[in-house]
Amino acid sequence: MKIKRIEASKYVQERVLVYPEEGEPLRITRDELLQFGLHKGMDLPEELVVELKKFGRSSSLRAKGAQLASGRMLSKKELGEKLKAKGATGEEAAEIAAWLEELGAVDEAAYAGILVRHYAAAHYGRHRVEQELQRRGIPHELWEEALQQLPQPHEAIGDFIAAKHHGKSLDFDGRRKLAATLQRRGFDWHDIRPVLNALGEEICE
Fold it and tell me: Do 7 and 68 fall into the same domain?
């Protein structure tokens, strides 16, 4: 079987379509075209077709990974999950995520910092922020440096109360409900209690 024609893809940059005399076109990169010395009329033995398909699959998945990573910040775990949803194996997804990390397209330390600042601005406490870092697959060794960007708990709690209640007075029941809300948002009771007690009669846990 010979190569019938070779064309540049109209839709994917750097992709080349190699049309054999029979079957679907082989999708490879320009580098692979040069590496294998492919040209019109060249014989395509079956083993070379298999190898080109393998290269084509890898190139296609890497392109998808790069596109995903350029669209928004992702952890390697999140990127891997998205790649697997697009047909990559677990091993392929992990390899591509590691490759993009080496290129700087995936930066989990920077991503952790952005997540912490985002949830801090929305008045969430440390425990809730840690849950988000865990859920998004940020490595635990990156947590502590990122979490240092959180404001002091009493400041964050005070900001949340000011934003939610706009200076309105709260009765005992209202402060109990607010305490439960703050705990759900990731704050510790020992940080919540003094702030709420300053608003009125002391409440117990």
Answer: yes
| pLDDT tens-place string over residues 133-188 | 999 999 999 999 999 999 999 999 999 998 887 767 777 788 888 999 999 999 99
Give a yes or no: residue 202 inside a domain: no
CATH of the domain at 14: 1.10.10.10
Lowest mean pLDDT among 11-25, 90-104, 174-188: 11-25
Gap between the Cα atoms of 108 and 139, Å rounded: 8
Strand-pairing partners, residue 28, are 16
Residues 129 and 170 in one domain: no
In a domain, 31, yes or no: yes
Q: How many domains does the chain have?
A: 3
108-121 vs 126-135: helix crossing angle, rounded to 10 = 140
The domain in which residue 140 lies consists of: 108-147
Quote the CA–CA distance of 69 and 85 in Å, as a whole number.
Answer: 15
Cα Rg of the chain (Å, integer): 27
Helix (H, G, I), strand (E, B) or coil at 59: helix
Segment 6-22 mean pLDDT: 84
Cβ-Cβ contacts under 8 Å for 200 (sequence gap 6 or more) = 169, 170, 171, 172, 175
